Amino acid sequence: MTTISRRLLVSALVLSAALSAGLSPAMAQAPARAAVAVAAEAPPTQRAKNVILFLADAGGVSTLNAASLMAYGEPLQLHIQQWPHLGLSETSAVDQFVSDSANGMSSIMTGVKTRNGVISQSPSAVRGRSDGAPTKTLLEYAEERGLRTGVISSQSIADATPAATYAHANDRGKWGEIFPQAFSPRFGDGVDVMFGVGRQKIGEQLAAVGSSFDALSRAHDRPIYARLEEAPASNGRPVVVADAMDVHAATLRALDLLEGAPEGYFLMVEWDAHTDDVRRGLQNVVDFDKLIEAVQARVDLNDTLLLFTADHSFGVQVDGGRRGEVLLEGYDAWKSAPGDGKLVRLDRVLVNRTHTAEEVPALAVGAGAERVRGYFPNTRLFEVMMAAWGWEADAASGD
Ligand SMILES: [Zn+2]
């Protein structure tokens, strides 16, 4: 029996059993989804050929909870909440409890915690003043070993989270220094598929250092398209820096290009989940979750690891509400007069509009997913992905 037909059969059996027990289809949905996750789990010790890291920027435990309640009126309804392997990943910087995206993502990508604001450099870096040693990223390991690589973001492709996959800098704000590093890689031929936004601001920062998209394109014989639709199908290594990005379409397009890679691939997809605007942030999580479900339906979990996590948490909490009520009561009134306060008090949701220090979820399914368990520092996720491939990190360079 194929995995899909087994999943359908299991779902049908659970659903019919639940219905005959007098449960509504909606109530029967939760156990059916749990059964699907178990059936989809790969056997342990399977080695991954491909790794996909889904990074919900600021997507903490309470954010996932609120997203499920907002979209489905029930907890535990997100697809990723059915995945079999869960750990809690600790995100602090070397000197501060609360992390920004730069330290958070650098820690995940390199296995080395650093300072806030620093992009994949050792903690001896002084932000904006002096470099630390570059810390080798998972993407660089993958490039070195001949895998294809992709980086996709709903945000600027030079902002901290995507930057930490392909660049090294002592300040996340130095986009004119960060972005060109995608074209001058330390290993392999660099990021193969790059889809993100930030066209205007990256362009301005390139100009400030005497460069431009055109100059980079010419120097490296690699067009930098302004829209996803402009990249022709014949371009196997497209770079798109747009004003806006359809992350769902971009990710499926990237899979088209990566999944034939003989040595496998590494793909990082970032989707912003900050809830400064709580409805927008939670909707991003729901949309991201649907994308992840679509990706899971395409890949073979016997040779692919899917890992979902966040770079740091965020202060959103559901502190009221009942089944059948609208979760975000009071949102429209706030939205029409948002103010600039740090605290947003809706009827059932309190938003403290800042990053927070508590651990974030790490959820996994597929080859090597069983290593995600317990509480751990976020640097463990680097080790989990390396171990999934069966790789060892280089000896520390000493810094
Ligand atoms: Zn972040």
Automatic annotation (TrEMBL):
CDD domains: ALP. GO terms for molecular function: alkaline phosphatase activity; metal ion binding. SUPFAM superfamilies: Alkaline phosphatase-like. Zn(2+) binds at D57, H274, D311, H312. Residues 1-28 form the signal peptide. Mg(2+) binds at D57, D159, T161, E270. The active site is at S101. Binds 2 Zn(2+) ions. Its cofactor is Zn(2+); Mg(2+). Belongs to the alkaline phosphatase family. This is Alkaline phosphatase. The lineage of its organism: Bacteria, Pseudomonadati, Pseudomonadota, Alphaproteobacteria, Caulobacterales.
